[in-house]
Amino acid sequence: MQSVVISNASGNLKLLAAVDGVTRLTLRSGGAIGDMAEYRQAVDNSGLESTVIAFVHDEADLKNYLPLLKRWMQANLLGFNADCTKPELAQACKLAEQIVVSTTAYVISDDGSLRRVNVPDVKVAAVPLSAFVQ
Questions:
Q1: What is the pLDDT of residues 77-127, one digit of tens each?
Q2: I want to staple 52 with a disulfide (CB 3.0 to 4.6 A). Which of 42, 45, 103, 109 is the partner?
Q3: Range of the structural domain that residue 15 is part of
Q4: How many structural domains compose the chain?
Q5: Judging by DSSP bridges, how do beta strands 102-108 and 51-56 pair with one another?
């Protein structure tokens, strides 16, 4: 299980997410998964499906900060520290942009109750994958 916290420039919490079941596209053997069929096989072998549960205080924050969470997830699939200019990662980097991760979103009300909301269809943030390091 991984957690993600996104704040605005003033340091105010805008989005909190829990991420589970990530099957990485980069392998410990040094290779990388480069096509969807190979990725699906790796997911099936792991028995895990990637899921994201996101929490926001304001539904507008979901639309504003989900693009960054999506880009973080792509970096996560690549194991972070990914240099997509390396030939051995080129296909995996392209594949990371095609993988859709199941996402559930909730708005946290002032009284602490949760209200499930639809996840907006937003484009991924245009942040370089190399910006996500671990």
A1: 998 988 888 888 889 999 999 999 999 999 999 898 999 999 999 999 999
A2: 103
A3: 2-126
A4: 1
A5: parallel
